[in-house]
């Protein structure tokens, strides 16, 4: 019997080695291992951030980094968040400043009318969208389409339709002078 197992080319030896290897693999494998995340390619990740248990470095040259940043800058749409709190604060500041801006002896009806025209113009400008100079500097073109985010809603506009702070002030001033 041992002489049959001794020869490496015997069929019985090969079968026994296969069975021993299969038994060893099955014995070493964990019993109830399952991946706790369900996802598909192209689907949005639905779970908390998945962190690797170790750090790893992606080595890139300065040229590769600059090229990737340029690609991101040119191919991604810019998003601007509309803030109701800023809008409310600007209107409140306007109201506070206009209370002390006019002397009591002036025609109060004309003053109230001017204040209302200014408030309406300011509300219109703020509703249309006012961006800072810093925000304007990241735009590639005045005719670029950007997204305005209003809470959960989103609206696409051409960047040139938005006011800069100076343009908003000029708009309100012009409306007040034309009144």
Q: Beta-strand percentage?
A: 5-15%
Largest β sheet strand count, sense and barrel closure: 3 strands, mixed
Low-confidence stretches: none
Order of helices and strands: HHHEHHEHEEEH
The strand count comes to 5
The dominant shape is: elongated
- Main sheet: which strands, in order across? 1-3-4
Can you walk me through this structure?
By secondary structure, the chain is mainly alpha-helical. It is 53% helix and 11% strand. It contains seven helices and five strands; from the N terminus they run H-H-H-E-H-H-E-H-E-E-E-H. It has helices at residues 2-6, 11-28, 62-75, 84-101, 108-128, 133-137, 165-178; strands spanning 79-81, 130-131, 145-150, 153-158, 163-164. The strands form two sheets. A three-stranded mixed β-sheet has the order 1-3-4, with no helix packed on it. Strands 2-5 form a two-stranded parallel sheet. A hairpin with a 2-residue loop joins strand 3 and strand 4 (153-158). Helix 4 packs antiparallel against helix 5 (108-128) and helix 5 packs antiparallel against helix 7. The termini are far apart.
